[in-house]
Amino acid sequence: MIVAFSVTPLGVGEDVGEYVADAVRVVRESGLPNRTDAMFTSVEGEWDEVMDVVKRAVAAVEARAPRVSLVLKADIRPGVTNGLTTKVETVERHLAQQTE
């Protein structure tokens, strides 16, 4: 499964980068395949391990912020691995075919 999620601390002002970095650090230290972009962090693995990482990422922000917002989207597709890479490669392949 792939989970894309965003953890946002509330009540700490506009500059939230250091809080978000706490959450991303948890994801990166998990050892699971992951990517972070401007809006979300995606992590891939089995249900329990991915949800544990999300829970710990939220807890890392919650430890320093009075309130936390979590947005989560999941692609639950048993038997598929390396989806973080293959989904993007498929789109890129289609884009390349359109330019030829």
Automatic annotation (TrEMBL):
Residues 3-92 form the Thiamine-binding protein domain. It comes from the Bacteria. Coiled coil: none annotated. It holds the Pfam family Thiamine_BP. Belongs to the UPF0045 family. This is MTH1187 family thiamine-binding protein. It comes from Streptomyces carpinensis.
